[in-house]
Specification:
Layout (H helix, E strand, L loop, with lengths): L5 H11 L7 H9 L10 H11 L2 H7 L2 H7 L2 H5 L7 H18 L1
Helix pairs in contact: 1-2
Length: about 100
């Protein structure tokens, strides 16, 4: 799956942060690992908000799979607000690990 164009990813960040005055560019930079914080969000808390807010394929359009795998830790998965998501993201992490190890 291809990552979405920059403007589309910015729009998704605007939708994610509709209730905060945080620049969408800062959010993308945090998720990419090139900025420490966007407002009060760290990469962990921002990624968790992404998991709780968007469907999986939308997340794949925002971030590179390798970066998703870096952030999809046990701690992040266990901290999601909706505990029904835990098995889904544990499964997704396993599938992503297999896909990335098979591709190179």
């Amino acid at each position: 799956m291809e990552i979405a164009p920059y403007e589309e990813r910015l729009n998704l960040m605007r939708g994610l942060m509709w209730d905060y005055n945080i620049p969408p560019e800062h959010c993308l930079e945090v998720l990419e690992g090139t900025r420490e914080k966007a407002g009060h969000y760290t990469e962990t808390t921002l990624f968790r908000k992404l998991l709780e807010s968007y469907p999986w394929f939308t997340i794949l359009s925002i971030m590179q799979p390798k970066r998703i795998l870096e952030l999809l830790t046990d701690q992040t998965i266990r901290s999601v607000r909706f505990k029904s998501l835990i098995p889904r993201y544990e499964f997704i992490r396993t599938q992503l690990q297999q896909a990335l190890s098979a591709s190179g």
